[in-house]
Amino acid sequence: MDRIESGWDDYWAETFRVKHRLSIPGIQQYDKMVVDFCIESLALEPGKEILDIACGAGDHCIEFAKRELKVTGFDISKRLIEVAKERAKEEGVEVNFLIGDMRKMDFSNRFQGAVLLSHSFGFFNHEENITVLERTHSALAKGGKMLLDLMNPYQLPRFQKTWASLEGGYLLSEPHVLDASAGVLKGRPAKFIDVEKGHIILMNQDALSNNDIRMYTALEIHSMLNDVGFGNVEFYGQNKLPRMPYSATSERMVVLATK
Ligand SMILES: C[S@@+](CC[C@H](N)C(=O)[O-])C[C@H]1O[C@@H](n2cnc3c(N)ncnc32)[C@H](O)[C@@H]1O
After folding, report:
1. pLDDT tens-digit profile of 183-193?
2. Pick the CATH number of 8-153+216-258 from 2.60.40.10, 3.30.230.10, 3.40.50.150, 3.40.50.300
3. What is the pLDDT of residues 28-60, one digit of tens each?
4. What residues flank ligand 1, with Cβ below 6 Å?
5. What would the pLDDT profile of 80-125 be if each residue is shown by its tens digit?
6. What residue's CA is closest to ligand 1, atom 17?
């Protein structure tokens, strides 16, 4: 079989964030629980404005809009934003979807809530990760809250090599590997065996780098948030209600902070 290398936006974004995501049993129910948790934690009443940073194909944005929030979804992938717009139209909800790099967001004093879900924080070097927090802080109105839904660095999932049967072929995902000295979770080099077209699709360098995540501890995040001007920093141990205290054995590390 021929081997082809593809990038994040031209191939892998849709494969992971749409096709593979939709194949996860119970994912829609899970999204609803996450959205309920966000709305309560961010204390958002209908009509308030929320910013979903790294919104992917809009799964949570659409749920937020159904709960009568004014939603802006922001993602770097043109393809995912295209899919998100089509889905919002099908669902009959209005969402302002924007394409952009979270390091360059230029919103000012506008949103009552901002979320980065499914561990969408830590994609860059340390300085750029701080820039993301600064830009999010600027985007919030005074008193607005930010919610980071992160993996618990003390309780990483047991990553395994997996095969998934998706439309057109099979997706093989290699497990993430933690580079403990760098504090970076190295992304999964995936392959798609395209049975219909008879070739194997690999990730190019851009797609691979998109999957590396800097893992921070609660203490580090707390200090970074204080440095950029956030207060009332709180930690929770799961991304669904009821809100549970954060501990070394929690399934997630959810961070809530107020401007
Ligand atoms: C883990 S996915 C999360 C998607 C969605 N929030 C969810 O919960 O399903 C991370 C998302 O970040 C986006 N992304 C990666 N780098 C980005 C950047 N520099 N600026 C904005 N979005 C970015 C990717 O396109 C992808 O949709």
Report:
1. 999 987 899 99
2. 3.40.50.150
3. 999 999 999 999 999 999 999 999 999 999 999
4. 13, 17, 54-56, 59-60, 75-77, 80, 101-103, 117-118, 120, 123, 210
5. 999 999 999 999 999 999 999 999 999 999 999 999 999 999 999 9
6. 76
Residues 239 and 249: their CA atoms lie apart, in Å, by: 14
Kindly report whether the global pTM for this prediction surpasses the value 0.70. Answer: yes
Assign 243 to helix, strand or coil. coil
Ligand 1 centre to CA of 32 (Å) is 19
Q: Ligand 1 centroid to 150 CA: how many Å?
A: 13
Task: Check the CA dihedral 123-124-130-136 and report its sign.
Answer: negative
Residue spans per domain, the chain: 2-6+156-209, 8-153+216-258
- In the Cβ-directed half-sphere of 166, how many Cα atoms lie within 13 Å? 23
Alpha helix segments (H runs only) across 51-165: 59-66, 78-91, 126-139
Question: Which residue carries 């961070």 as its tokens?
Answer: 255
